Amino acid sequence: MSEARRAYLDHNATSPLRAEARAAMLELLDAPGNPSSVHADGRAARARVERAREQVAALCGAPRAGVVFTSGATEANALVLHPQLEVAGRPVSCDVLLTNGAEHLSVLRGHRFAPEQVEVLPVDGQGYLDLNALEASLVRHGAAGRRALVSLMAANNETGILQPVIEVANLAAAHGAVIHCDAVQAAGRVALDAEALPVDFLTLSAHKVGGPQGAGALVARHADSRVRAPLIPGGGQERGRRGGTENVAAIAGFGAAAAAAATGREEEAIRLSGLRDRLEKGIVRFIQDARIVGEGAQRLPNTSCVIFAGLKAETLVIALDLAHVSVSAGSACSSGKVGASHVLTAMGMEPDAAGAAIRFSLGWSSTADDVDLALASLERVVPHVRSRAARAA
Ligand code: PMP
């Protein structure tokens, strides 16, 4: 019996492995070398890690030596959120971490900053960081002789909103602050070069660009920028920035995925925004009160966060799953937990609306057929789920 076709519209949770990444990884699974070994097998493994470093650096227009491979973006964020940094060869001590309520939880927790050093700034109703609040905070800390590390995501994982990273970087520079950008969801979807993201450090995750889960990178714009205290010192791998034998196959898969994501990125963004618009137009055609979060704001081309008033997102996710459509309620990291998304809550949304938000996220494997299957399923299941919810109320 053949399996029914599924529409996978959850690329922001994880993007399926690209063929290029799979091929690179398979090739390495049978290769024995440790990149730190001096023999030919070790040197071959080292060459694969260094090639991947070049590919990941190229995706963000950074120097090769700026790339530190980690186990993922969560680890890269935990590594960089530390008060003792070095920027372009200059030691810098940060006294406060300025973040905001719409960040991924792996940033919001502040990591190696003490809780009293972490300031969570407000975002507006669209999810944009409040620039006045940021400036006031930078002025206040500056007057007290405190230096800030500002951490701002490039694109929100739940809504796709693009943060004003250039303005924030200018403000940070004017106040002598260091800036880090979680670019996990922006990677492969919008430009990440120094002009688009003029930041000191950025975070990437392999599995959001079609690489494997369990690999990521902290990328410095300058070869001589680093975190002065490695999270994992271990055996001094990654030039002392991250210890532990490199996950060579995963790193090679990450590199191959980064190269594939960089190729034709602009055309792919146009294709994806076309599919996204087809989805959103289709939804509001038959569910007139559906509300698209951030409609009209600067958004990623692939992400659509839609509020279906009067129902619980978890119930709709399950109903869509039974109809062979994979989507998320809020972010995947917080799914399974009861309660509204912290991002939508930070945007000032009422709990009922925030609890009724579904995230559709498209990517390299998405087709018009996927969108049409999702639309046909929504048209069928939303009225059904709503009437059940109304009867239960
Ligand atoms: N930051 C953002 C914006 C994300 O969306 C995610 C993944 N949901 C992460 C960080 C964590 O990435 P990883 O799974 O590689 O740890």
How are the SSEs placed, and which strands pair?
Elements: E1 7-8, H1 19-29, H2 40-59, E2 67-70, H3 73-80, E3 84-87, E4 90-93, E5 96-100, H4 105-108, E6 118-121, H5 131-143, E7 148-151, H6 165-174, E8 178-182, E9 201-205, E10 216-220, E11 226-227, H7 248-262, H8 265-286, E12 291-292, E13 303-307, H9 313-322, E14 325-326, E15 328-329, H10 342-346, H11 351-354, E16 357-361, H12 368-392
Parallel strand pairs: 1-14, 5-6, 5-7, 7-8, 8-9
Antiparallel strand pairs: 2-10, 3-4, 3-11, 9-10, 12-13, 13-16, 15-16
Helix pairs in contact: 1-7, 2-7, 5-6, 8-12, 9-12
Bound molecules: 4'-deoxy-4'-aminopyridoxal-5'-phosphate (PMP).
* Structure class: alpha/beta
What small molecules does the structure contain? 4'-deoxy-4'-aminopyridoxal-5'-phosphate
Uncertain spans, ≥5 residues at pLDDT below 50? none
Q: In which range does the helix fraction lie?
A: 25-40%
CATH level 4 superfamily of the largest domain: Type I PLP-dependent aspartate aminotransferase-like (Major domain)
> Can you tell me the CATH class of the largest domain?
Alpha Beta
Secondary-structure element sequence? EHHEHEEEHEHEHEEEEHHEEHEEHHEH
Strand count, sense and barrel status of the largest sheet are: 7 strands, mixed
The total strand number stands at: 16
Instruction: Give the DSSP E fraction (strand runs of 2 or more residues).
Output: 15-25%
Name the overall outline. Answer: globular
Distance between the termini: 40 Å
How many domains, as an integer?
2
Number of helices: 12
Indicate the radius of gyration in whole angstroms: 21 Å
If you average the pLDDT, what whole number results?
Answer: 95
Strand order of the largest sheet: 2-10-9-8-7-5-6
Q: Please name the CATH architecture of the largest domain.
A: 3-Layer(aba) Sandwich
CATH structural fold name of the largest domain: Aspartate Aminotransferase, domain 2
